[in-house]
Each structure stands twice: as C-alpha cells, then as structure tokens.
Amino acid sequence: MPLDTGIRRLAAAAALLAGAAAAPPAAAQTTVTIACSALGIGHQLCREGAEAWAQETGNAVRFVATPKSATDQLALYQQLLAAGSADIDVFQIDVVWPGILGDHFLDLADHIDPAAAGEHLPVLVETATVDGRLVALPWFIDMGLLYYREDLLRRHGRPVPTTWADLEQTARLIRDAERAAGNDRMWGYVWQGRAYEGLTVNALEWIDSFGGGTIVGDDGAVTVNNPQAVEALATAAGWVGTITPQGVLNYTEEEARGAFQSGNAVFMRNWPYAWPLVNGSDSPVKGMVGVAPLPRGGTDGKHTGALGGQMLAVNRMSAVPDAAADLVRHLTGAQEQKRRAMRGGYNPTRPALYEDADLIAVNPVVADLAGALPGAVARPSRQAGQLYNQLSAELYQAVHRVLSGSAEAADALAGLERSLERLNRRSRR
Amino acid sequence: MAHGSALARERRRAAALFLAPMLAVLALVAVWPLARTVYFSFTDATLGSLDSYVIVGVENYRWLAEDPDWWRAVRNTVVFTVVSVTLETMLGLVIALALNARLPGRGLLRAAVLIPWAIPTVVSAQMWGWMFHDLYGVVNEALLAAGLIAAPKAWTADPDLSMTAVVLVDVWKATPFMTLLILAALQMLPRDLYEAARVDGIHPVRVFFRVTLPLIRPALMVAVIFRTLDALRVFDLMYVLTGNIRETMSMSVYARRQLIDFQDIGYGSAAATALFLVVALITVTTITLGRVRPGGKGGSG
Prior knowledge:
The complex is a heterodimer.
Chain A: H1 2-19, E1 20-21, E2 31-36, H2 42-57, E3 60-65, H3 70-82, E4 90-94, H4 98-101, H5 114-118, H6 122-128, E5 129-130, E6 133-134, E7 137-143, E8 145-149, H7 150-155, H8 164-180, E9 187-190, H9 197-209, H10 227-239, H11 253-261, E10 265-270, H12 274-278, E11 289-292, E12 305-314, H13 321-331, H14 334-344, H15 357-362, H16 365-372, E13 376-377, H17 381-384, H18 388-403, H19 409-427
Parallel strand pairs in A: 2-3, 2-4, 9-10, 12-13
Antiparallel strand pairs in A: 1-3, 4-12, 5-6, 7-12, 8-10, 8-11
Chain B: H1 6-40, H2 59-66, H3 68-100, H4 106-113, H5 115-118, H6 121-131, H7 138-145, H8 162-187, H9 191-199, H10 204-232, H11 236-241, H12 251-261, H13 265-297
Helix pairs in contact in B: 1-13, 2-13, 3-8, 3-10, 8-10, 10-13, 12-13
C-alpha cells in the first residue's frame, strides 16, 4: 500500500517540521535524531544531555519535540514506526509501551555491554524485555506522590494525611478556613481526571490502595469488579465538587500543577517531575511544599503509587544504529541520570543512585521514593500486551463516567468487567 | 446535434481526453483510499500487521451496531451539526444583513469579521480551552462579574456543559464563513426590486421574507450544505477541547481512536465507512429538501 504509507510519511514529516529545531548536519559526523518529551523542563535536560554526548563523540543530534499528551505521543510513534520511517532514531517511550512498539525497536543487547542493563532496577529491565529482546533502556522512574502545602497544614494544625478519609477531612477543613479568610479560589485536592492515560493511573492507585487489585490479575483474568474497587471509585467521585474542583475532569498533569502551584490547592497528586517546578524561583508556593506517599484506602489499605517512567529505544530502521545505541547508553548512564535527577527531579532507574548523598541533599524526594519504591504498582500492561490501550481506554472512560456523576461506581465497574471480557474474547478470535 | 455526426464524435472524444486527467487524479486520491477503507472494514487487519489479515465478513459492522459508544457518537455528531449549523446560519444572516448596509468603515468591519475563520481550529480550540478554564478562565471571570453565574463553571469538564462549550466555539469560528457567503449573495441582488417595493410601500420585514430570502435561498442552501458536511466530520474541536469523553465524542473521534489509538484497522475502517454512509445520507436528504422547498414557493419576484 504505497499510498497509505506515503500519506503516513507525509503526516510524520509534518509533525517533524512542527516540532523540530534542526541543527545543520556537518559532512563528516553522524546525525542522530531523538524524540523527547516537551513536558516541564524535560526537553531542556534532554537537549543538554544529548548535546554533551554529541560534543564528546564528535557527532550531531537533532531534536523532535513530541506532543504533550502520552496518547498523542503513542499515536505519532505508531504512525512513524508502522510506515517504516527512519526519520527518528531514538524514541523516548513510556514504561507501558515496550509490548506495543517492541517489534519496531532494535535489540539493544547487541549494541551495549550486557552488564550495563543489570545496573537498572530489575523490574524495569523485565518490562523492557519483549520476547527475549531488550528493546529499551530505562531512563527515569516515576511514581505517583502526594504533594501537600506544609505551611497550610501547620497553620491549621493538621498532620500529613495517611488515609483518603484523613485527606478528605483535612482538605475540607483547610479549604473552608482559607475561603473564610478571603482566599475564595482555594480547593482541597487536585489530580488528573481528563479521560486519558493519566486517569487510568489515578484510578489504579485508588483501587489498589483500597486493596481492589490491579484491574487484571496475573493470569489475565479481569478482577476489577470487586467491592473494594467500588468503594475506591465511590470515594473519589465524592471528592468532585467538594474538595476537588469539577474542572479536574479535564485536567492533565500540567493543569493540576497549575492549580497547585498558583496556590489554589492544599493537596495534589502528581509525578516527581513537579517537585523542582513547584519549588522554582518563580513559584508562588516555593518552599511551602512537602511530599508523601499517596494515602491508604483505609486502615487495612496500603500506600500505593503507580509506577511510571520513561525509557529510550532505538528505531530498528535507523540508519545509524550504533551511534543511536551509544546515545541511549550515554543518556541512561549513571552520570547523566544523576544530573537529570538533581536538575529536573527525574528519578534514577539505578538503585545505586538512591544512596547518593549529593542527590539526596538537592532532591529529598529521592529519599522518600527509595522507601516507597518496593510498594509501587505497575499498570497491567504486561497482561494486556497489544490490547493495553483498549483496556486503558475502557477503564478511564468508565471511571470518568463515575466521576462526572453519569454512572454509579458499581454499575460502571460491572460494565467495565463486561467490556474487558469482550475485549479478551475478541483478541482470541 | 445528430448522434452519429463526425463533429459530435470528435467533440466527445476531446471531452473525454480533457476529463481523463481529472478522473485519474480523483480515482487516485478519493476512490482508491475509500475503496481500501471499505475493503479493510471486512477484515481483522491491525496497524502492526497490515500484510497478514483474515476476511471476517460483516463482523466489524455487527460489533459497531452493538457498541453504545458508537451510537452515542452518532447522536453527538448529529446534535452538534443541527445546533451549530442552525445558529451559524441565523447569526450569519443577521451579520450579513448588517454588513450589507451602507456604514462608514464597512470594509474594515468585513475584514475583522473574518478573523475567527482565519485562525486554525486547533489553535482556536486551545485558546478557548484556556478561556473556559474553571479556575483562571476569562469566561467564568466575565460571567461572574456580570452576575450571570453564582460559581465558576467547569465548561469543558461538566458533562452537561461540555457539548455547549464545543458548540459555542464552533459557532464563533464558523459564523464568519456563513456571513461571507450570504453577504456575497446579498450583494448580487438587483436593486430595482427594492425600489419597487419601497414605491409600493411594503414593510421591510415583508420585503425580507418575500424578496430577499427567496432570492438568496440557493446561495444559503449551498452554504448550509457546506457547513453541514464540515460539521458532520468534526474532529479537531472535540479532540483538543474535551478529549475522549463520551459526552462530546464525534464519529470522527471514535473512528480515529479505533484506527490510531487501538491500531484496529479493520474495526476502525468499519467505523470510518459507517461515518461516510451517515454523512452521505444526511447530505442527500439536505440537498433533496433544499430543492423541493424553493420550487414550491419561490415563484417570481
């Protein structure tokens, strides 16, 4: 289908033009094109890291900014890779994508020292290994965290909440007191409620913190329709309009940070990337913010943070596979990961760095994370494989309906169970 | 005009020769992709395996018919189209009549009206997204200051308001298009008709309904059909402003999600084909209705 391919190429080229800041390639050097995120200061750090590599090796790098939302990013990558395009050599990918995109990536084990992979957290290397091929190297790790306003908790004499019920009560109390004091835009708790992957992550955290499992069990059976999950969703739906502004139903990470950083929320659920930003010199809440694990569902629940993070992979069609793999090796190396962690709050995927004194001094979140990491919960991407996106979409739509009040938690989860089972059957046709 | 004359045959051959390039291009850019989409809709192809698929008959269409989300998307699209095109037509008519009057600075005003139409939809949707923001959006600010609402509204998140927000942005954007087409029609109207009406002392409202409206109806119908087609395919507005929520998902958003997000070329092609059929059906209906009405009433001036 030359035409389809041509059209996809055209779309890809347009995307490249829109996002690329091209450096003129010199004759003798190799130019590696890397697609990295435009979220927060990530792009700047990616640029600096890759340019350092370019200088060191005498090569050149070109940057492609990717869309803000993960769903759009994946769609763009799929179009490019399915068309067999070699326009981008190195891709920044989400932890849940190796299963979906793996076939299009190079087996990095052929290009790097195998011991280098062993220096990363084993669970991440496992995720990056598809059919025995190491298709990506972990770049940074993410985990859902609770951000809170230290100053407000102190002023109102409240401890950092450890259960969702605590959080709701504290948020309500502080919001009411602050509003009475004239701060009429104050809200309690902001998170990611737009119908997209971010809501899947939030929902997984709620459900797992109540002991409701991880949507799909290890054996692939759908487990989401259980009383704990119903309780979790009903609890979250109860926040909307009370401690959480209704607009959260259209918030992604950056909108939530916008509300929190402008001083309009007591609590926020976000990834570690927000830490240096809320403490930036231009932040109205600089120095007033603390971080804690997300609350437990109840006294018998658990602190749950969804595992996120990004990896770097090399396009199988790349014209410069060795240089591209070397760039990946450099960017995922200990020195570069430490720099990124200190400057941007991107947490290392190398356990050794969690004991680094310099890093802990600059970025105390690292110490919090080190203890919380073992309790991290992964999204069911391994169980779902190619169907992960469908699973996630069914989940976030069902949850969104509950949050917006157009469905009851129990009905929505029963419906979700049916759709996921239907999905399962269809995949086996 | 004799059928067999050499001249007529020669002319037909020339016509065919001149038309051939256009037909070839049309076949390449319209017929072929469409045929391919229809073909894929009967298979289980996915984006990752475009070369190895199985023909599954009408299975994709059966799933489509059973999917409540699809029917919701059809309903959303039709509601969106009817409401937005109606509002755009009425507003466009009013603004065109105003601009047709002899006012100082009329040229400047006409250019200014076009600005919303000139902004790419993705940009204006993002812009409106910020204006509709629940915490720091200017829309809430203005409505609060005017005392029209008591508390800030979550325009793009509230399931009861999100469609309204989408329609508002579309009306803002597409009204200039309607205005322009109607204005062009108004400027072609013969002036002597209005002079005759004035001499006869006919009320201006009556003049509008008996003279102006019948005369611009053909142009109006073209504008309405254009906008209807456009609105039925709506994608970027919902995609940027409200994302994947059921309340605003249009048929195009649904089809794209299956094709791109889920890589399901087979099922996505079925959705795209169904979208094409719905659009074709509605267009044929609109054109037929548009033809019948002026014939029954239009008469002479």
